[in-house]
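Dear Dr. H.,

I hope your travels went smoothly. While you were away I took the liberty of generating a structure for the chain from your last submission, since the lab meeting agenda had it listed for discussion. I wanted you to have the full record in hand beforehand rather than looking at slides cold. The sequence, exactly as received, is reproduced here:
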Amino acid sequence: MEKIALVSITKHGVQMIRELQSLMPTADLFYMTKFSQGDEEERGITMFEGSVRKIIPQLFEQYDGITFVVSLGAVVRMIAPVLKDKKTDPAVVVIDDKGEFVISVLSGHLGGANELTRTIAKLLQATPVITTASDVQKTIAVDLLGRDFGWVIDGDEYVTPVSAAVVNEEPVVVIQESGERNWWKYSHPLPANIKCADSLEEAKDLDVNASLIITHRLFNFDFENKWLSNYVIYRPKSVYLGMGCNRGTSAEEIEQVIIDTLAELEISFFSVKGISTIDLKKDEQGMLDVCKKFGWDFVYYTPEQLNKVEIENPSETVFKYTGAYGVSEPAAKLSSGESKLLLEKKKSGNVTISVAVVVR
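The corresponding predicted structure, in token form, is as follows:
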């Protein structure tokens, strides 16, 4: 959470957030002018006159997390008119005036209020109050699973009913075909109602009420209707693209080759981790633009590094011009750490592409 505001309207609260700022140096402070202590300009503290309600829209617009030393009921009434949805609303946390309790109020999961609550409670040696069922029960948080690894949810229409199945201890299966395996963060085992499988095919005969599917694959649901009724699909960043291209190839052509290739392989675009290539292409604008557009990694290797990798299609012509016997194939293997490629090499227009997938 990059931008945090600490807000108070009471004398004790002002002292509390001033002390908190010494422990959270990037946080911004807001309090009423009548509590001025003379060093506000030096410390970058913002003061206001009248009701704190007037600055609520500004705080919601500018901050990822807002912590109020204000009564819970007052905060609920003040923020109600500016609420939009859990995907865009900032985290909201409330501290009582004595600093005994820190309460997660809004955007507990997606917005990070639960984590902010724990952090501030630890700093104040206070009691964190979190009511999110999955946190209280220490089970899977469906809307957060894999987020630390960069996983994204591909369609969120069933997040709520799947979450309900998890916390209500109904039969649930986690199907993981790729992506990081250390997503379970608790020291205790998975709850008994949650089973695991390595593929859709392996799980198709399980009697479950909900499914959490972690895969890079695109697929048609050709199993029973239960797979269509209550599921969430996660896209781990498990697909690595090795690439070469002619100098000056446009970003549009590179992007279209990637789209077409992934569609042919039935791989989700959301699972791409990045592009890797030879260092001769480290300034290739088309590749750079595509990576910037989608937030992908851009990695390049020297010819010496590429030539250490065993490849299926070494080329004397490529060696003549680059000093490497291949570009897309060894680059994909190096960046992924895989010895086998899903796609060895495909030439399309000005672009050559290879694809590796990390499945374990």
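Two observations you may find useful: The chain has three domains: 4-131, 147-235, 239-357. The two ends are 30 Å apart (CA to CA).

With kind regards,
E. W.
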